[in-house]
Amino acid sequence: MNNNAINYMKRALQLAQKGEATVSPNPLVGAVIVKNGKIIGEGYNIRKGEGHAEVNAVKNANECVKNSTLYCTLEPCCHTNKTTPPCTELIIERGISEVVIAALDPNPEVAGKGVKRLEEAGVKVSFGLLEKEAKKQNKVFFKNMTTSLPYIHIKSAVTLDGRIATSSGDSKWISSSEARGEVHEMRNKYDAVMIGKNTLRADNPSLNTRQGEEVIKENIKVIVGTLESTDTRLKIFSDPKKVINITKDDSTEIEGVRKIQIKKTWKETFEQLYRAGVCSLLVEGGSALVSSLLKEDAFDELTFYVNPKLVGNGPSVFVDNDTKTIADGIALNGKWRLNNSNEAIFEVMK
């Protein structure tokens, strides 16, 4: 592929990213239509139930798309088991002569069938251009489709000596305002935010996504542990329907709150959470919850904000009495970066 083709696909990836806060459970997809060496139409997936990227690109085209080339970050859909018609049929009907795809769709209902349908209709098809970038962009969707599990991202703020609070329990604020702003940008990309019952009672968090003082998204709130005797006036219960409780307790505790039974492993528990509609999850819990997930290797991504302060005694981000030697410790293969507030950020992405 020439540089022009690469630039067109890069533009399609940029368009796809625009749907990151609204597209779930659908994938991020961008589309660019090129004719006679110029872009004539662009589109992207905005939200479930609305037109797909290819449809929007055709609709937004400023001239006839016949004999044009479509650049698409994910294989066009070909099945009818959804609220919108197959994109392959629109491509064929409008006479688009060539389709360049970044990544094939992992959804078993598509998975190469879209390419086959287009080729059968005489459309020239190629795929693999910027495939690595497209798969990384759709890390949540690929995890969902290949495992039937949500994408799990652990986030924690720690001091230089690994504490998430002081001995008195104070944790406001370990991270800087810059880091907290970045965390809200993270929340905007995820369906749900998960904490444990102790963090809920100690901090009374809102767990929504804010831009300054403005709430821009009400995430699903996932609470781990029994809610027995929990004050229902806590902020997250202002809309109980947005709350999921993962617990061993069989009793119904708070009206409107959905309940999921915790299983022997996090994988089994997360399978239930995925069936409840959570495709992606940002974990912001305390040491018990984070330690449990780390021990089971039940995460896909991890971000630690390390503030250069020492507080001495206080809860550690990771607790494990079974680790006897340094060699037995959990090795995390990640990268470091430094923000403008002199915080070191350690990031792991599997």
Task: Please outline the major beta sheet.
Answer: 9 strands, mixed
Helix amount: 25-40%
Average pLDDT level: 92
Secondary-structure content class = alpha/beta
What's the alpha carbon Rg, rounded to whole Å?
23 Å
| Sequence stretches where pLDDT stays below 50 over 5 or more residues | none
Main β-sheet, spatial strand arrangement = 12-11-10-7-13-6-14-16-15
- Beta-strand residue fraction: 15-25%
Using the alpha-carbon principal axes, give the shape.
elongated
Count of individual helical segments: 10
Overall number of strands? 16
Distance between the termini: 29 Å
Q: What is the oligomer described by this structure?
A: single chain
N-to-C order of helices and strands: HEEHEHEHEHHEHEHEEEEEHEHEEE
Give a summary of the structure in a few sentences.
The chain is of the alpha/beta class and 350 residues long. Helices cover 26% and strands 24% of the residues.
Can you tell me about this structure?
With 350 residues, the protein is α/β, with parallel strands linked by helices. 26% of the residues lie in helices and 24% in strands. Strands 12-11-10-7-13-6-14-16-15 form a nine-stranded mixed β-sheet, sandwiched between helices. The chain starts with a helix and ends with a strand.
Essential attributes:
350 residues, 5-stranded mixed sheet, 9-stranded mixed sheet, alpha/beta
How is this fold's topology laid out?
Elements lengths: L2 H15 L12 E6 L2 E7 L8 H7 L9 E6 L12 H7 L4 E6 L9 H8 L3 E4 L3 H7 L1 H9 L3 E9 L17 H13 L2 E5 H7 L5 E3 L2 E4 L2 E5 L18 E5 L10 E4 L4 H10 L4 E4 L3 H9 L5 E7 L27 E4 L5 E6 L1
Parallel strand pairs: 3-4, 4-5, 6-13, 6-14, 7-10, 7-13, 10-11, 11-12
Antiparallel strand pairs: 1-2, 1-3, 8-9, 14-16, 15-16
